[in-house]
Amino acid sequence: MIRLAFAYLRDRPLMTALNVLLLAFAVATLVILLSVSTQLGSRFERDARGIDLVVGAKGSPLQLILSSIYHVDAPTGNIPLDSVDLLRADPSVRQVIPLALGDNFRGYRIVGTEPAYADHFGAKLAEGRVFAGPHEVVIGAGVAEALGMKLGQRFVGSHGLEADEGAGEHEHSPFTAVGILAPTGSVVDRLILTSVQSVWDVHGIAHHHEAEEHHDDEAGEHHDHEAEAHHEHEPNLTGREDLKPEVTALLVSYKSAFGAVRLPIMINRQTNMQAAVPAIETARLLSLLGVGIDGARAFAWLLAATGGLSIFVALLAAATAREGDLALLRIMGASPWQVFGTILAEGLIIAMAGAGAGVVLGHAALALATRMFAQLGDFGFDPFALPPGEGSIVLAVLAIGLVAALIPGLRVFRTDLVRTLARTS
């Protein structure tokens, strides 16, 4: 029965290939949409887990979330260093992690922060140690693998958050890799971590007195006076104001639910900063993406239905053209169910070929898109990951193939063998 079905399909190769291609395009579209929506949603949720609030410069709250949590957009600006102590002194705040952005190494962002940032994502050291001294960095697992970086390697960061040959390099302040993180499956894998002070050093921002104010008040006060006295006597030959130590954003975790009620309102109304809630902005982003994805998904299912209709027309025409052959099979001893199964097998084979080709085509297109569009790589998108619903798509397409073959197959039971043979002989 299966061999006979294959023989009938080979008898009309062009029509068979077109039907397979139509279903393959539909399945590929559905696989792409399912993979993108599933992986993006999962990545958004995983990277934002445990971060209740992001504080940064005024601007778009969505841009602040994208740049500070997912590291895929430009920051909204910088905020005063005093904001770190302001939030850490709040009784409803459990943790504040500062971020200082501005440079990259071959497209991978260099993030000035504290060791607590890696701990937040559960990152463990695979080699080396945590950064402690000036210009020491810890490399994310994905960065180390992509660039082949090793412990002790020295490199120079480039200005900007994306690789740009025209951007200036900070040749005067090379970094040294002192640690490599184990893979976490989070945004940390794609980052290079260093201290906030190292980021200030690279940009020529004096910060000695600020650091001492935060870590050693008495000694710092004495040193501050000396530093201020020194600066007072130092002529400003450039005529520009000295850059002040600032941070790009703060990742805040609440100690109590009271903070969620009071803190965002206080920051947005009483300061020059903005507070963005990751859960709200991420839900808004997924909602915006969801409208487009739903529309494309509806189009893909319409394409699959068109493929099923095409199979139905092809099998119906073939069954009509082969009425004489099918009647002869019945006369030679084939049962109606065997002939019916042959036609069903034709529809199922076309659907299987279309579904298989569509899955391969969809993942190949995702792999190509990941290489062409850096944003997908920034999200850690895996083009060959199998989303949970992919099997359901394949089963649905097989069902379409069977249903499309059902009506042409049922004609076998209504065939009058004598009249059919007399008409076709």
Structure characterization notes:
With 425 residues, the chain is α+β, with helices and mostly antiparallel strands. The protein has 16 helices and 13 strands. About 6% of the residues have low confidence. Its main location: membrane. Keywords: Cell membrane, Membrane, Transmembrane, Transmembrane helix. It is found in: Cell membrane.
Overview in brief:
This protein is about 60% helix and about 15% strand.
Question: Descriptors for this entry?
Answer:
eleven-stranded mixed β-sheet, 13 strands, ABC-4/HrtB_transporter, about 15% strand, two-stranded antiparallel ribbon, ABC3_permease_C, alpha+beta, cell membrane, transmembrane helix
Task: Output the radius of gyration.
Answer: 32 Å
Tell me the structural class. Answer: alpha+beta
- What is the rounded distance between the termini? 24 Å
Report the portion of residues in β strands.
5-15%
Secondary structure blueprint with pairings:
Layout: H1 2-11, H2 13-48, E1 53-57, H3 61-70, E2 79-80, H4 82-88, E3 93-105, E4 108-113, H5 115-120, E5 125-128, E6 136-139, H6 141-147, E7 154-155, E8 158-159, E9 175-181, E10 192-195, H7 196-202, H8 208-215, H9 217-233, E11 246-247, E12 249-254, H10 258-270, E13 273-276, H11 278-321, H12 323-331, H13 336-372, H14 374-378, H15 390-410, H16 417-424
Parallel strand pairs: 4-10, 6-9
Antiparallel strand pairs: 1-12, 1-13, 2-11, 3-4, 3-8, 3-12, 5-9, 6-10, 7-9
